[in-house]
Structures are given as C-alpha cells and as structure tokens.
Amino acid sequence: MSPGPIRLTGHAYTTLRPAGAACITGGFWADRRRTNAEVSIAQGPAKLEAAGNLANLRAAADGGNTFTGDYPFQDSDVHKWLEAASWQLADQPENAELAAHVDQLIALLASAQEPDGYLQTYFQVAHPEKRWQDLRWGHELYCAGHLIQAAVAHRRATGRDELLAVAVRFAVHVDSVFGPDKAVDGVCGHPEIETALVELYRETRERRWLDLAGYFVERRGHGLLDGERRPGAVYWQDHVPVREATTVAGHAVRQLYLLAGATDLAAETGDADLRVSLERLWAAMAGTKTYLTGGVGSRYEGEAFGEPYELPADRAYAETCAAIASVQWSWRMALLTGEAKYSDLVERTLFNGFLSGVGLDGDSWLYVNPLQIRESYEDSGGDKSARRTPWFRCACCPPNVMRLLASLPHYMASGDGEGLQLHQFATGVFEAGGGRVRVATDYPWGGRIAVTVEEAPGAEWTLSVRIPAWCEDFTATAPDGGAPAETVPGWLRLRRRWQPGDTLTVDLDLTARLTRPDPRVDAVRGCVAIERGPLVHCLEGVDQRPGVPFDELTLPYGAHLAVRHEPDLLGGVTVVSADGRIRGSADAVRLTAVPYCAWANRRPGPMRVWIPES
Amino acid sequence: MSPGPIRLTGHAYTTLRPAGAACITGGFWADRRRTNAEVSIAQGPAKLEAAGNLANLRAAADGGNTFTGDYPFQDSDVHKWLEAASWQLADQPENAELAAHVDQLIALLASAQEPDGYLQTYFQVAHPEKRWQDLRWGHELYCAGHLIQAAVAHRRATGRDELLAVAVRFAVHVDSVFGPDKAVDGVCGHPEIETALVELYRETRERRWLDLAGYFVERRGHGLLDGERRPGAVYWQDHVPVREATTVAGHAVRQLYLLAGATDLAAETGDADLRVSLERLWAAMAGTKTYLTGGVGSRYEGEAFGEPYELPADRAYAETCAAIASVQWSWRMALLTGEAKYSDLVERTLFNGFLSGVGLDGDSWLYVNPLQIRESYEDSGGDKSARRTPWFRCACCPPNVMRLLASLPHYMASGDGEGLQLHQFATGVFEAGGGRVRVATDYPWGGRIAVTVEEAPGAEWTLSVRIPAWCEDFTATAPDGGAPAETVPGWLRLRRRWQPGDTLTVDLDLTARLTRPDPRVDAVRGCVAIERGPLVHCLEGVDQRPGVPFDELTLPYGAHLAVRHEPDLLGGVTVVSADGRIRGSADAVRLTAVPYCAWANRRPGPMRVWIPES
C-alpha cells in the first residue's frame, strides 16, 4: 500500500478522490513496473552521472564553473528521477540501495542550493548573472516545479523532510521574487510549477502555495513572455489565458502540464469557470488532436499540437512526455468530474502511446512515437530517432516514464461518499471510498476482471467498474449470481450491502476489431487499424512473411481477425492476424499484428498502425 | 533578345545548348514578368533598404559595427536582386531608373569590399574575428556564389565589368583561402558557390574557376562539416558525396543548388560518372519526393526532403526557393541529356509550386506552399505563414522569384546541331540551333502553339516541340498541311527544309482531368486532384457556395469537369467546376477550382488540391 500523487485536501471540490492506498501485485503492469524498478530506476543514478547531471550539482556545491549538457534544465532529470525513486521506495521500503542513492542525491541537492534557496546549476555554474533574466528559455520555475514534486513524493513515501526542506526553501525564494508587486511579474516559458505548487499546498497545507499557483496560472496568456520572439507566444503557452482558450495548442508538454496544474487549482478552489474551460479544452484535445494511440502533439516543429485532425502517421511526433502529461491531466479531470471518458483516454494512452516510449528491457527509449515507419526509413540518430536509444541528449522522457510507472497504482481507482470506482484494471489491492477491494485479472490479454471486496461499510456501498468506450459487449456477475442492473454512461455500478469476500466479475469482450479513422483525419484516409481491447496493434516488418513488400500491404475492411496468445513473444503478447493483400494482387498474404506498445523491441524495420484498405 | 544564364563554353558536353537569344513578348508569362519588372524588381531597393540590407553594406564601407537582420547571409538578398535586375536590364536597357539603382548598389558593394577581396557584411561588421571560422552557418561561400551569379548576369546583360570585378576579387580571395593545401580545406554549409563558379568560368574562360567548382563539389560528403552537430551532416549536404548518393535528402535548397552546380560541372567536364549519379538522383526526386505542384522539400523540420512518398498536403513545406532550385537543376539536366522529362518537371514546377510563391500583385509572397489549408487554420504569422506576406525576415524567396522570372525566356528553348527544341510554350521569339522561331500561343489557357520559322539554314533542319507527359492527345499541322510523322519520347520532331514563314501548329488537348495520387503517397490516399494542361487546380473557400462545410467536401472520381474562362477573375484564369458532395450526403454541391498558382490572392480561407473521393 503506497501513497501517491494528488493527495487532495479535505475540502477539495472534486467529484471523486484518489485511492488512499493502492498497489499492483501481478499481471501486465506489475511486470512493467518490476522492470521499471529493477532496470530503469536502478540505473538512473549511473545514467545521470554519465550525462553530467550530477557533476553539475557538484560544481554548484563546490563553486565550479563548468556546466555539462545542452540544456538549462538538466537538473530536472535528477528531480524526476528522485520523484520516481521516491514512489518506488514507498513500494519497496526495504530497498536499501535505492534509499542510499536517494539520500545521496538529496544531500547533493542540499549542498548545491544557494543560501537564498535558489537551485538551478545551469545558472549557478555557467550564467549567474542571468538568474531570472530569461523566463522564456531558462526553465527555472520548471526545474523548481520538478524539485517540489520530487520533494512531495519523498515526503509522502518516507515521511522524511530533507528534500521537502530544500524544495520549500526554493519555493520561498520563488515567492519572494515573483508577484504583481515584486521583482518579477512573470511566468515560466515551461509550465510545471503550477501543479507542483498545488501539491506543495496539499502537503504543507500552507495557503501561500495555492495562491502562488493561482498567480502563475492566471498571469499566463497575457503576453508577459514577449511572444514576438520565435517560436512565439503559443509555444510558451502565453498566447491566451486558460480561461479563454478554445483548444489545446502549442508545445504539447507545456500545454498539458499547464492544464494539469489548472485542474489541480480548480480542484482545490472549486473555480467553476475554470472547470468549464478545462472541460472544453479536454474535449478539443481528445476529439480532434489525439492519435489512436493516445499520443498527442503531432508536429516536430515546436513539438506542438497541430490543427484539428492534423494527425500524420509517419511524422507523428507524439512525444513520450506528452503522453505522460496527457495521462496526468486526464486523471485529474476524471477526479474533478467523475466522468469515465477521461479514464478511457488514460487507458488508451497508458497501453499505447505512453508505453511505447520505453523498451521491454527498461533500458531503451523512444522520444517520439510514430505510427508508421516505411521500409525506406533512414535513421538519422539523435533524440528523435525511431530506433530505441539508451538515453537522450534531452533526457526528459526516461525519468518521466519512471515516475509515472512508479506511481501508476494511483491512477487505477478512486472513491467518493458512495463507494469505490475502478478506473483501470490490474491485479492488486485498492482502498478508497471507505472500502477496500482486491482485483484479479489477466487484462489486457483476458477480459475478465474479478473485484473482490475485502472491506466495506456495513451499510449500502457502491462498487463501480468503468466500461471502456471501446467495449461493445460485456457481462457482469454479481455476488448473488445476478447481473448488476444499474449503469450510468461509462460505469457499471452495483450498490448493495457488501460482505468481505463478495466478488463482482466483469467480462469485457475483447474480440479484435478493425477501426476506421475519423474521416476528417486527412493523413490516414482509406486505412484501417487493428485493435483488441485497449491495445492498438501494428504491423512490424519482422513479423511478416519474408520478402513481402511491406509498404504495399493492404487489408480488406471485412477481414477475419484471428487471435492467439504468444507467451514467448515480446514477453508474452496476444497477436492478431488476418489475410491481407499486396497492392495490385488478389492473392491473400497473412498479416501479423503485435501490440503497438511492444513495437521496436526487435530488429529495426518498417511498422504501421494504419493499414491501407484493400 | 536578351542573354541568359548557362552560357555554355563551346566545348561543353551537353546534348542541347540554351537559346542564344530569347524573349517572351506576350501571354501568360509576359503578364507575370511585367509585374515582376514593374512591381517586384522595381520595389527591391526600397525593400532592401527597409530590411537593413543596404545599411549593412554602408556599415561595412564606413567601418561601422551595427549589423541589421537575423541572418549572416543578408547580403545575398542584395546579390539576388542585382542578378534579377541585371536580367531585367537586358530586356529593358532603356530603364534608366533601374540602371541607376543597379549602379548604386554595385558601387555600394564595391565600397564595402575589403582590400583582400572579402565581402560579407555580417562578418565584416559584427564578427570580423569569425571570418571563415564557421563554415556550417556562416554562408560566406554561399554569399560569394550569389555575388558571382549577379556579376555574371550584369556582365552578360550590360557588357560592363564593375560588378564582375568585385566578384572576381572575392573569388580570387576564396581561391587563395580554400584548397587541399591552403588555409581551409572545407566546404560551405550552404551550396551555391559551385554553380556560380562554373558560370564565372564560362564568363571569364579562366579554368581556375571550373577547377575550384570541382574542388567544392568533390570535397563535399566527406564529413568536413562535423555532422555530429545538429542539425547534422545531411542538412549541410555533407553526408555523402554526390557521386555515391542514391536519393535527394536533407535541406532541399542546399541539395538542389548543389546538384545544379554538379550538373554544370558535368556539362563542362563531360564527367560521365557524375552524370549517371545526377540522373539517378533526379529520378529519385521526381519519382518519390515531388508534389503534384512540383514543390519539393516536404518537411518543416530542417526545410528538408522527407522519405520517399512522404508528401503531406497540409504540412507541405515546399519552399518557393526549393521550387526555383528544382527548375534550375532540371533545366540543366534537360540540356545535359536532351530528355523531355526534365522539361516536363520544369513546366509543372513553374506553373504551380513556383508561381504560387508570388502574389498576383508582385508584392506579396509565400515562403511555404502547402497543398491544403483547413477551415481551422490559425495563422501564426511569420515567414512560414500561409498568408501572403510583404517581405520575410529570411527574405531568400522574393529576390529568387525575381531572378527566375527575369531570366525565364532562357528556360524555353534550346538548340543543337540539328535544329531548335521548344521546351516551354510562351509567345515570343527564340533563337537557337542555327535558326529563329516566333511562337504564338494562349497557353496555358489554350492548347494551340503556333511556331513560325523566321530564320533557318538552307539545308534540312529539325524543329522539335515537347509533348508534355500530361498530354494524352494532340494534333500537329505541318507547313505543307500534313502531320509530322516522326516522334521520339516526349518530342514531336519535324525535319525538313524550312522557309521563313513556315508554321508548325501543335494543338495540345487541354481537357480537364482528375488525377489520382500514387498509392504510395500515404498522406493523400483516397483523394483526387483536378488538373488542366500544366495547371494543378485547387478549391479555395472563397469560390464555394456560402455555408458549405469546406473540410467535408468530396468529389466523385467520375465527376464531369466543366471548364470556363473567367477574364475578370484573378487576372484572367480558366476555372474548372464539378458536382461534388458533402460528406454524409448524396446531394450534389457545385465545386469550383481555380489554378493553384493563383491561390491566396483573395480573402484568406481554406484551400485544397487533393479532394477526398466521394
């Protein structure tokens, strides 16, 4: 049972509240989280050392003047790793090696911090004269935000205050500098501090942090960042106030971190106007600017959202960090509103456009997550390669994946005054809404989800299970052998007096399906995609008959889809196969589609999610 | 009768030789060239003054230290305008105002030149210590190349040597610095000097310039530019030697200027291996990386060629300068090989992806030339806007358009030992292959091309007229009333004894047609385009029935295409209309398509070339 992010205050204005405790004990996500713990997080300190991030901290502590790395925000990689390691420590308090690494890095951060609380090695070491002088590119509040998030995680996971003390000193310094009547009236070129300050408020219960978060949210969109300069105000999220925006735009991660922070703000303040804006923006994103995989931010240029329905498969940018930010925001919206559609997108994103970002080995990464690689693809290397890479020059994604996987149990369930809501399906134990349930499932390979109540109030209590939007058919078996009668959009709800041991079993129909795209998506007109349950599948060259011309493959819309589980393939995946065609030929050719989340884990080759219709 | 570019030496190894003299006297291109002369070129000096280019030259002359503009290559705008103005002066030697402007700028350049011949104000004024230190971004040889081209044009147009003297001084300086055993063994991050030096060789007949051009072509592709740095060797065209390359790649303008220079080199040296490489690269470009409009360079990221068949309509970059470079290269390949396919692409590019780059007013420009603008398009302004702009921060395209239009007559005809070849169709007079013809045509609105021989040798002589690849049917009437019998691929040839006044009349069938895309182009699968003759048409929102949902329009493949000439629309254009549909409805809706070259000249709105099939 581990603590997690978004620990709402008692008077928060949300429909649902996150689980008080949650753990994943087996199945798909447990496997991925084990690799995350044993490989990704475990290797973190060595990766940060090799990339120079720790040298920067030592230089700041020792008064050195050599900065390593290409970006002013190098420190944030350390902060994000510390956040990931902290959530992990909550799961594994006995992991002494990890605890020692965490303690070392916290001590290093403390030693690097200036007496006035300032902490960003790029400016300390290389450009002390430019402190707070370049809000567009400096990323100082961004780094402060990640430091705060790490500190909050460390406090919740360990109960200790060392890192929180560092973060609060920095936050106090920020509060002394920023404000309408202070030295700087401005916002950061990269949102992140907003959500962090709300979490700091939640953790410390000091109102000043909520107020400061509100200041940063409200001051944005008023041209403080001189949007005349390239790449322009929309890149920095300074083109329009959140309250007035009609669609998501600009740099995807910046946009979504900001909206997550604004949602945190609305959750704690009950600001109904802000909530309406957020609902509008989320609908625009999910309806017009999101890939089938849940990936967002289609443009390489500016790592940005494109226009509505501008969703190219080949040049999909779909940064891993943007998928993470989308999950973080959607989950906050799910809590705020109680609506299942937000968790539908969380599921789609987690199982596809997010998970593709990390290799099965936990040690190889994708920064961009395209939906098509041609046979003629020429790898230019670098961060934006479609080949997995051990680490990036701009290493934002790997520790971001680590912190989401480490905190994943907290995206699974929520509670309210009526009962418990199961949003995502993983074997584990979840405590919320005054009760506790044990979930057993082979999801996403199997569709059966057995929810056994371990603790419930004596009175009537409601157990709710999300019925995914992709699911056209399901059955449910109540403890008395009958089927639950009451459903509301997206939810199966069963209200009754629960006895410990009572089990609600839901069977989601996982029949593989062919999906046609929205006809407004120009880039994939005339194509179909294969999906099964929450998983988007893709053709990889390595799975097709040798010698077939991959880029000429087509699939008839009515094709029969055959399903088989392959325990020895890609760590165990269910594969979908169908009779396709080679363009210009009537002969059938067997096509094999693996889950997109597992692509690019074998020898490099072509891949496609959207297959031209025969 | 005006002189032009590519004045081959007598011993050049080309199949064809450019026209000795050429002029366009009426019709479509005459109108465009008149606007080019009266508006675009005439306003050039004021635009260059306003943008600071001339202030930079004065600063260099006066020892100032204030540089204006964002780019080290600002001078090249001046050089390209001087080249355009020189070609224009050849047409209008009586234009005293233009001649005075030219003389002033030449004097200014001469006064800005260093005693050692160096001339680039960015380094002279702002960074004298960095001269020749940053070959990747410095653009010094690039600027030298444009200076040389301007000087060659000025010499050919006026017979005067002032600008040539400046250029030769700079070239001598370059030759003293660059070479295997000299101070710098390297190449420029932006090709351009190569083609310029071959032209300088042609103009001066000094072999050293051809050798230096050869050096710059051959040294490229050997990693001299430290391709580890971003954006990488392929951007700078240093990833592979031209001789070994298998496809066009990287920054499109850089790639195509280089290949034009390499073609010039092959033309003057007879290098058969180089020619084979160039033919291979052109086939790769034309077959897999060229838009229907002739536009090339599909990616915003790096202004680069994408993969084969990566040709998105909405995010087509298709820089105007890249279209110009494509025309320049293809024309050189046409002369080298004598094959009509090169002039087919010249025609497609000139009438569509090039001409879209300049507004009908001659005073508004497009840097990028997309094939689709959605209703939801939000203009972010700046150089890459899909709205016409009076000038650009990076003003490479406008003077480039000016110089191509000013020299356009020289892309129309060629000659060889047998006779004259007419590659492009415009009313005018062309002298080549020992004869002279007068052409009368209403092309591209009408398909009749009447070629009247004004002078021909007394012996048998061959008049050749290109039959465009798009043309499925044509008739030809020989002077004796019969039809010419002999054709070779792409050419109608008539060999006979010509008398002055003999007319060959060719009628190309201009029936409007629906074009389906290559099925390998993922981005426009399931769409059709409307073409008529050499013109690609497009739907613009402003021409459609008010209130129709533009992005929902579709067109049946078998639709009847109606054609009418609208003399008062867009300066006089032929319009194609057809019955389309609104997605989800069976009702017909009349669609009206104007030539793509005339788009974006009225109120802003959506546009598309590729229309989804009903």
What does this entry look like structurally?
Two copies of one chain form a homodimer. By secondary structure, the first copy, chain A, is an alpha+beta fold. Chain A is 35% helix and 18% strand. The first copy, chain A, has helices at residues 28-51, 53-62, 75-91, 96-112, 121-126, 140-158, 162-177, 193-204, 207-219, 252-269, 272-288, 320-337, 340-354, 397-406, and strands at residues 17-18, 21-26, 372-373, 413-415, 419-422, 427-432, 435-441, 448-455, 460-466, 474-477, 487-488, 491-497, 503-508, 513-515, 527-532, 535-540, 553-554, 562-566, 573-582, 588-595, 607-608, 611-612. In chain A, strands 3, 14, 15, 16, 17, 18, 19, 20, 21 and 22 form a ten-stranded antiparallel β-sheet that branches. In chain A, helix 1 packs antiparallel against helix 14, helix 3 runs parallel beside helix 14 and helix 6 (140-158) packs parallel to helix 8. The longest helix of chain A is centred in the first third of the chain and has 24 residues, at 28-51. The radius of gyration of chain A is 24 Å and the shape is globular. The termini of chain A are far apart. In chain A, 58% of the residues are buried. The mean pLDDT of chain A is 96. At the A-B interface, loops of A face loops of B.
Question: What order do the helices and strands come in, and which of them pair?
Answer:
The structure is a homodimer of 614-residue chains.
Chain A lengths: L16 E2 L2 E6 L1 H24 L1 H10 L12 H17 L4 H17 L8 H6 L13 H19 L3 H16 L15 H12 L2 H13 L32 H18 L2 H17 L31 H18 L2 H15 L17 E2 L23 H10 L6 E3 L3 E4 L4 E6 L2 E7 L6 E8 L4 E7 L7 E4 L9 E2 L2 E7 L5 E6 L4 E3 L11 E6 L2 E6 L12 E2 L7 E5 L6 E10 L5 E8 L11 E2 L2 E2 L2
Parallel strand pairs in A: 5-9
Antiparallel strand pairs in A: 1-4, 2-6, 3-21, 4-5, 6-7, 7-8, 8-13, 9-12, 10-13, 11-12, 14-15, 15-16, 15-22, 16-20, 16-21, 17-19, 18-19, 19-20
Helix pairs in contact in A: 1-3, 1-14, 2-4, 3-4, 3-6, 3-14, 6-7, 6-8, 8-9, 8-10, 9-10, 10-11, 10-12, 12-13
